[in-house]
Amino acid sequence: MLSGALYIADDPELAAEALNAAVLSERFNATSAADPEGRRAALAELIGDLGEDVEIRPPLRVDCGYQISVGPRTFVNFGAILLDVARITIGADVQFGPNVQLLTPTHPVDPEPRRAKWEAAEPITIGDNVWLGGGVIVCPGVTIGENTVVGAGAVVTKDLPPNVVAVGNPARVIRSIGEEA
Known about the structure:
A hairpin with a 4-residue loop joins strand 19 (164-167) and strand 20 (172-176). The chain starts with 6 loop residues before the first strand and ends in a 5-residue tail after the last strand. The protein has one domain (7-176): UDP N-Acetylglucosamine Acyltransferase, domain 1. The protein has helices at residues 12-29, 36-46, 111-115, and strands at residues 7-8, 49-50, 55-56, 60-62, 68-70, 75-76, 80-83, 88-90, 95-96, 101-103, 105-106, 118-121, 124-126, 131-132, 137-138, 143-144, 149-150, 155-156, 164-167, 172-176. It is of the alpha/beta class and 181 residues long. Helix 1 packs antiparallel against helix 2 (36-46).
């Protein structure tokens, strides 16, 4: 999985990991904003590496949970989907709008291996101080450089460099940070 090699999606070990993540996700998603310590404890049990002062608002959906690293002071708004079959690394001071999706799984284009439930995964890296607008989708294997802003609804299919603004489907750089709009 981690290397991008094909694996069988319904492998019993993977199914057990997914079930555990589902149980932990349900626990986190049922927490109350009136109990921030309980919410943080449930999130820390779900997420592999959780920095200080991270706020993730439920609901949150994950594949495994333990493959996710979230840097300090990061904010993730409602409805995030972090499919972490491969590693997801989110830097410090990152901001997610609502309904952001980070999708590491990928599937064969050929119908036969896809029908046989083969899939692969590629890691996603989000640099420090990145802002992903509402509804952004980040595809497998993508790295987004530090300080980059991705406009609402963009679909990021290729790496984005640091210090740019990107929009659209597929996302494209429209300017560098610091340039006039």
